[in-house]
Design brief:
79 residues; mainly alpha; two-stranded antiparallel sheet; 2 strands; signal; Lipoprotein
Length: 79
């Protein structure tokens, strides 16, 4: 599986999960549209990790979300 197809598959999974949930990512100092940029950067960094290049999507998503959380983003329930 190529890197481009892995990224596309990951984005599809994230979009499906986001559509089904009532949660959203928020940051105390950044606008909501900055999340996509931060997420994409974290995902690109994650895909460079040799341990995660096997294409196990769940591990890639978890590592990407940990990276986003380190940047200050938090997943909170919508009201």
């Amino acid at each position: 599986m190529t890197t481009l197809s892995r990224v596309s598959c990951s984005l599809l999974v994230v979009c499906v999960l986001a559509a089904c949930s009532t949660s959203e990512w928020v940051h105390p100092n950044r606008p909501k549209d900055q999340f996509t940029l931060d997420y994409n950067k974290c995902q690109a960094d994650t895909l460079r990790d040799p341990k995660l290049q096997q294409g196990i999507q769940l591990l890639i998503i978890q590592a990407t979300e940990r990276c986003v959380q380190k940047q200050g983003w938090r997943l909170v329930e919508k009201e």
